[in-house]
Design goal:
The complex is a heterodimer of chains A (157) and B (171). In chain A, 18% of the residues lie in helices and 20% in strands. Chain A has a six-stranded antiparallel β-sheet with strand order 4-5-2-1-3-6. The mean pLDDT of chain A is 96. With 157 residues, chain A is of the alpha+beta class. Chain B is α+β, with helices and mostly antiparallel strands and 171 residues long. A five-stranded antiparallel β-sheet of chain B has the order 3-4-5-6-7. Chain B is globular. The relative contact order of chain B is 0.14. Classes of the chains: A alpha+beta (157), B alpha+beta (171). At the A-B interface, helix 4 of A face helix 1, strand 3, strand 5 and strand 6 of B.
Chain lengths: 157, 171
């Protein structure tokens, strides 16, 4: 197993970002975005792998793949590196601080943990995990979306 | 792709505000979705269109999504699962009375679908998950501007009609 247990890594500073690749079909497609405009992010872009997929990948449970900004920087890369091989993708960013202090729409806390999970193809790879068991709820995905921004936006046109 | 549009024909009807509201459903009876709260229906007059016109764009989108290959989201996402499409058609058939606008239709990592409606006051997401063979695989997430939030199986969502009406309004 790639990771035995999830543990928030405090060596990943609060004032850094994680980056998540986004394709059109995760956020409603081009038809949901007026021509020439920047697409709107949606919570669906921040889903976990389900239990089965997560274990297949070597994780102890559901989690979400990201690129760690601190790891990209350490290797002299910019965030764009995370989509270098993925034409037509956008890149969303979320601050590590915002993830650790995340709250749902109703105000209840739903903090997320961040840890490194380097792979051969992506040494900057990490995962974000929910402390609640099971796959991240839609409410929490939406909460992440609320604190996320585009680093490299998808534009319809 | 199976035949996806309901065979029934909806008659156009006029919906008036307040006490003059009239909504004729398929059976000619009052549609409870229009009577749950005055705030549900905007003050104003608008025409309901034939259901097939409203559903066609959704189904076109699903046809597009059905062409996606495995791992097409860069995170190992599965292709659209056929059972999900069948369930979507069932859901649309049951809820078309309260769908006012086209949702944003997205793929999930498991090969499911998410239909999302959002306006200034409301967000509603209907997720169709291919995993378990039961109605609980359809889940609802709803939030409104007051901070109200609800998430759970669609079967347990007694306000689904009302919330879908609210979230799909073209405000």
């Amino acid at each position: 197993m790639l990771i035995q247990t999830f543990a928030d890594d405090l060596r990943i500073p609060d004032d850094t970002f994680v980056y998540r690749r986004v394709d059109w079909d995760r956020i409603g497609g081009r038809r949901s975005c007026p021509p020439g405009e920047v697409a709107r992010l949606s919570g669906n872009a921040f889903q976990d792998y389900d239990e089965e997929k997560a274990r297949e990948l070597g994780y102890p449970g559901p989690c979400m793949s990201v690129a760690l900004g601190v790891a990209l920087l350490a290797r002299g890369h910019t965030p764009r590196q995370a989509i270098e091989k993925y034409q037509g993708y956008g890149l969303a960013r979320v601050s590590v601080a915002a993830l650790r202090r995340l709250r749902r729409h109703n105000g209840s806390p739903c903090p997320q943990g961040v840890m490194a999970a380097p792979t051969e193809a992506e040494p900057w790879h990490g995962v974000v995990f929910d402390y609640e068991p099971g796959k991240r709820k839609g409410a929490v995905c939406t909460a992440i979306c609320r604190v996320a921004q585009w680093e490299i936006p998808l534009i319809n046109g | 792709m199976p035949s996806v549009l309901p065979s029934r024909v909806r008659h156009s009807s006029v919906i008036m505000a307040s006490r003059e509201r009239l909504e004729t459903g398929r059976s000619g009876t009052w549609n409870p979705a229009t009577l749950t709260s005055r705030e549900i229906l905007p003050a104003g007059c608008f025409i309901r269109v034939d259901a097939s016109a409203r559903l066609a764009p959704i189904l076109e989108r699903v046809v597009d999504l059905s062409r996606r290959q495995e791992d097409c989201d860069s995170y190992g996402g599965r292709a659209l699962q056929p059972r999900v499409v069948t369930q979507l058609i069932d859901v649309l058939a049951q809820l078309d009375d309260v769908i006012q606008t086209e949702p944003a239709v997205s793929m999930t990592g498991e090969g499911g679908l998410v239909l999302a409606w959002e306006n200034e006051g409301y967000l509603l997401e209907l997720s169709i998950d291919p995993a378990p063979p039961s109605r609980s695989e359809i889940t609802v997430y709803f939030e409104d501007a007051s901070g109200t939030e609800w998430e759970g199986p669609a079967a347990d969502c007694h306000a689904l009609d009302k919330w879908l009406w609210q979230a799909s309004a073209a405000i």
